[in-house]
Amino acid sequence: MAVELWIPYTASPSWIALQLAMTKIAIDLNLLEALVSHGRSMSVQELAQATEA
After folding, report:
1. How confident is the model over 11-32, as pLDDT tens digits?
2. Alpha carbon of 48 to those of 8, 14, 30, 52: distances in Å?
3. Source organism's superkingdom (predicted)?
């Protein structure tokens, strides 16, 4: 899974914080989806492989 974060040169600190928060939410949702679809506990390596696609 690749996460791209584009920050313009003139970005305000609050804009950057918002972008980082939205990126974290997207990552968290991808991890949650992988856990739910897998249906059992996963190791860190299994979780990483499931979220690469």
Report:
1. 788 888 888 888 888 878 877 7
2. 29, 30, 10, 6
3. Eukaryota
The domain segmentation of the chain, as residue ranges, is: 13-52
- Per-residue CA distances from 24 to 20, 39, 40 (Å): 6, 23, 23
For 42, the token pair is: 């996963």
pTM (2 d.p.): 0.46
Question: Furthest-apart CA pair in the chain: how many Å?
Answer: 45
